[in-house]
Amino acid sequence: MTVARPDRDSDLGEVARGGRGGPTVLRIMVGSQLRRLREAKGITGEQAAYVIRASHSKISRMELGRSPFKQRDVADLLTLYGITDAGEREKMLELARQASTPGWWHQYSDLLPSWFEAYIGLEEAARTIRSYEVQFVHGLLQCEDYARAIVGLWHGHRDPDDLDRRVAMRMRRQQLLTRKDAPTLWAIADEAVLTRPWGGRDVQRAQVKHLLRMCELPNVTLQIVPFAIGGHAAAGGPFTILRFDAPDLPDVVYLEQLTSAFYLDKRSDLDDYTVVMNTLSIQAEPPEATPAILNGILKQL
Asked: Which one of 4, 114, 295, 298 has the fewest CB atoms closer than 10 angstroms to its CB?
């Protein structure tokens, strides 16, 4: 006996075959599939946890895509949920194996806090990235010298090799903007981002020139919020909205703090932040004005 799921398997397979997605998104989608199967059978999280000799919190983490999958656990859960067809089981087990495959950022796992590692996986999978920055140039738009100055603020006292690897990781992240299936980046920056001389004037000049080059990419939009407008819609601080092609994967609002981050996916939160972002894009200078603003700053440096 199997549970009817008209297009879930094909959706998951499409994500696995596509270039955009990666293990983070696959974990979330496989976890969602396991949750649907469990709920369709009327099985509680506690009952499912008992079968795989685990806690209810582990079932919750699996279903939210926040932990890798063990093949034995997935197989036992499929049996519990009545999935007995050999082909159907193997399809789910293969997707679970792919979901547990490390992403490119795994080589930097000794440097990455868990709360930011999750963001990199989501960033890799996003179709659209919309951000507002109040203090720093967005990480995807930083030139190497600027990135080194920023990373050095917190990690400059460590081994030089450690600093080099952190900068290299940031540069590696930026490759997604020029890949074949590149996402759209719509970045809005406060004027303070451009006028604060992180790393000194030479670095500031190099960063502004880099932004001019990045604005030439067809998938990158940059707007500047001038000091002259005073208060604005995003006065609460920086944030990022990630949107995905993957089915059943909701938009995510990312809020970063000094030692942690929040990931918001409730519809009410998404709606609120989307309204703020849309309003801010109207209050900021239009994208076509950005090159003139950047060139004006260059003349002052």
From this structure: 4
Closest CA to 137 of 177, 176, 193: 193
| Amino acid letter, 93 | L
CB 27 within 8 A of CB 34: no
Identity of the highest mean pLDDT range in 10-24, 104-118, 229-243, 285-299: 285-299
Asked if residue 234 belongs to a domain, the reply is yes
Provide the whole-model pTM.
0.82
Q: Which domain holds residue 15?
A: 8-99
Rounded CA separation 5/83 (Å): 12
Residues 62 and 128 in one domain: no
Longest dimension (CA), the chain: 72
Q: How far is CA 162 from the centre of its chain?
A: 23
Q: List, for residues 122-148, the tens digit of each pLDDT value.
A: 999 899 999 999 999 999 999 999 999
Backbone angles phi, psi at 57, to 5 degrees: -65, -30
Name the packing angle between helices 86-99 and 8-17 (round to 10°).
Answer: 40
CATH of the domain at 267: 3.30.870
Q: Is 42 exposed, middle or buried (0-12, 13-18, 19+ CB in 10 A)?
A: exposed
pLDDT of residue 5: 45
93 and 209 part of one domain: no
Contact indicator for 252, 238 with CB cutoff of 8 Å: no
